[in-house]
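One thing: mind reviewing this one?
=====
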Amino acid sequence: MIVTDVTDARAATDGGADRLELVADPQLGGMTPSPDVVRAVLAATATPVRVMIRRTESHQLSAQTAELLRTDVESLPMATEFVCGAVDVAGVPSLALDPVTAAMKGRHWTFHRALDDAPDLAAAATAALFLPGCDHVLTAGDPAGVDTGIHRLRAALRDSELAAALVIGGGVTADNLPALLAAGARGVHLGRGVREGASWDGPVSAALVRAAADLVHGH
């Protein structure tokens, strides 16, 4: 689930989150957090933390931006896992990401929601999983979120091997979580849906995280 600081991380951990995605600017889809924040969150929780590596809202990556992302990774030697991604004009994983993943030096990472627009979601996600270190793909099935993308998600989740690597996120709430689990989701990604007021300005609610975790683990 998405966290932005130590307070978020502690509440998420108290609620039973299995893994955290640490970002800055969640209202922009998540950007690279500062090294000081990364260091503090890692010290505050034993829950695995994946650090977002992203500088722009665009999912297409220029050589200049790729260089910035590479330096971001190199500035975070304390991080053990990451989240990043980029697509080409066809909406499939981009080779422009290679310098960034090379800087990770074998550390695992999640391909973020850049693939939501892919013409063939399952094929694009499978291609992403062949990238060095990529072991999960985060997707809502559609840029508008899981409610719009549910049909594409169902199709992708029919592949049991792929389903094990997909993390479903983007507008997940207590209302739609049961349908996502019924569709075959094994991992889900929570954001505003477990914050007070369903707002990025609200704190993470450990009680809402716990309710979602109980649904996932009890499915």
